[in-house]
Amino acid sequence: MDVSAARTRRQLPLHWLGVLPFAAFAILFLLWPTMHIVAGAFRNPQGEFTLQNLANLWTPSIIASYWISIRISFASAFLGCVIGFAIAAAVTLGGLPRWIRGPLLTFSGVASNFAGVPLAFAFLATLGRLGLVTILLRDWFGINIYAMGFNLLSFFGLTVTYLFFQIPLMILIVTPALDGLKREWREAASILGASGAQYWRIVAFPILWPTLLGTFALLFANAFGAVATAFALTGSSLSIVPILLFAQIRGDVLQDPHLGYALAFGMIVVTGIANLIYVVLRARSERWTR
């Protein structure tokens, strides 16, 4: 009995082997670089400990970069939540044909990961000054969106571009939550005399509220950390934090890697808080919809 027990203890935990590739990937490409960035934020070029890099974050130009990044992230997250929720509710609970749901979710899965240079090129080819939609609106309908004040290389233009992946991500996350709304809850509300608006205000929205707030936090973090799309679309014309970070680490004029590490550390803090809010609220919402 003792020998078999000892052999059992000496056996390799084979059920953990499937997790090893993920653990190695997370350590090499996530945890290790993150710790390198955090350590670099508290060091000077000579490798000595300092808080000057963090103090430099409070300069007016950097504060302005964080502020415009927060505004763009907030606007794209809010609009993404509102539009994405409306689409998901129409497909899940509305009167749309059920065959639309499959293609919509498939497209959302692809579009939520479509970003970077291809997305920037797609919007330039569509809504740029010589884009297809811009030309069609001008030649067919006499509408010059740029004469009306629209500019793709601006706060509003970047927000619209971000919505291309924010709305699909919202659809993917909120659809299971809408599916979790039990039919018995609506039937009970109807039996008690509640209207459709009262059901949503008193029953559905309080249950979905943690999911909605958590998804808003996730979309905020998703937009705040986006760099390739913004850099490819606007270049240096819009000074958001990721572009300023790129200039500090790789630029020829503003090169200060340790200030870049401090900028990245600030982004890690902001996105980390947003993701923590999402995880906590997501866990809370799942207790209701199970």
Automatic annotation (TrEMBL):
Subcellular location: Cell membrane
InterPro entries: MetI-like, MetI-like_sf
Keyword terms of this UniProt record: Cell membrane, Membrane, Transmembrane, Transmembrane helix, Transport
Chief location category: membrane
Positions of the ABC transmembrane type-1 domain: 66-280
Membrane topology: Multi-pass membrane protein
Transmembrane regions listed in the UniProt entry: 12-32, 52-70, 77-96, 116-137, 149-178, 198-220, 227-247, 259-281
Pfam family, any one: BPD_transp_1
Gene3D superfamilies hit by this protein: MetI-like
Signal peptide: none
Protein family: Belongs to the binding-protein-dependent transport system permease family. CysTW subfamily.
Protein name: ABC transporter permease
